[in-house]
Amino acid sequence: MPHDPLQQYRDRFVGAESDLVYFDGNSLGRPLKVTAERLREFVLEEWGGRLIRGWDERWFDLPLTLGDRIGRTFLGAAPGQVAVGDSTTVLLYKLMRAAVAARPGRTEIVVDRDNFPTDRYVADGVARECGLALRWVDVDTSAGITAELLADVVSERTALVVASHVAYRSAYLADGSALTRIAHDAGALILWDLSHSGGSVPVELDAWQADLAVGCTYKYLNGGPGSPAYCYVAARHLDDLSQPIQGWMGATDPFLMGPVYTPTQGIRRFLSGTPAVTAMLAVSDMVDLVDEVGMAAVREKSVGLTEHAIALADEHLSGRGVTVASPRDAGWRGGHVTLHHRDMQRVVAALWERDVIPDYRDPGGLRVGLSPLSTSYDEVDRGIAAVRELLG
């Protein structure tokens, strides 16, 4: 079994001591043990004790202070460009609408056919709402959107490119810098979905010269079910982009309660309603942990886990007709591995009955999600052994 220099951190997660094999941390991360105490303390002291005063003392700025910490730790983003609030879907809508409005006269949104369904659905809705067309990129579902594929479809008609940094099905890791440059060369903006990369692989939004990005916090940021998403808007766009959901938290003087909406300056203008303060506490705990460990070490463990899963699949499952539907080169692979077999839907259902928890993605894909700080190599061994047994 490979050496694991981060093994000691696994004990900080709830349930890590059990025999359950958890291959779904890329959908919902395990909670940290410290979060249970933090939530108890918050209810009894900060919420219960300070009550409405909490807004003046800390909560009002939490979407921005936590956003800056996420930007620094996970996204390669300088302060003042990341805010936490709303769901991933709502933030995708806000940024897509803002982007196409900033490119008047252009008629297309570019998106690949294997992008996450929400991204495609929101792009379709925005296109219909704004009288635009979708320009589809056909991709290999065992890979993802490449520089060559994108270059073939962008043009002077392109207003916005929507791309996932890590493909949800295959874990293909897109070239952020190259795809951003191709979009810009065509005069378009680019919106990155970081939901499967933030907290798993290094992201360098400022270095890429990215325009916009959205990511969730309940996967590798371990914020819990329904925890709020984050958005990134490059500093150079903050004064020019207008988001479509005008709420009081993004107004110049929220407590004036004035008759006319005037957007405030900076990233706060992309907030709308009252932020989910309680849900941000767990995210803050995970930011603390990754600050302690370092993203370089997290990525090294992620590569090790996915390499181990692929090696076991080759050794124990290939003879049973299983193929690896993810890139084999770690430089092009995110934090999960998809294993393909025509019978995987049945296998996944049977695994859940055995407390082995992957997820299933059509067609025939068992997705092995490997959250670097909470997944052990022993889990990978036991999980792949269970798949082998069920395939017969």
UniProtKB/TrEMBL annotation:
Source organism per UniProt: Nocardioides agariphilus
Lineage of producing organism: Bacteria, Bacillati, Actinomycetota, Actinomycetes, Propionibacteriales
This protein's UniProt keywords: Aminotransferase, Hydrolase, Pyridine nucleotide biosynthesis, Pyridoxal phosphate, Transferase
SUPFAM superfamilies membership: PLP-dependent transferases
Protein's pathway: Cofactor biosynthesis; NAD(+) biosynthesis; quinolinate from L-kynurenine: step 2/3; Amino-acid degradation; L-kynurenine degradation; L-alanine and anthranilate from L-kynurenine: step 1/1
Subunit structure of this chain's protein: Homodimer.
Tree of life domain: Bacteria
Co-factor(s): pyridoxal 5'-phosphate
Name this polypeptide is given: Kynureninase
EC number, as in UniProt: 3.7.1.3
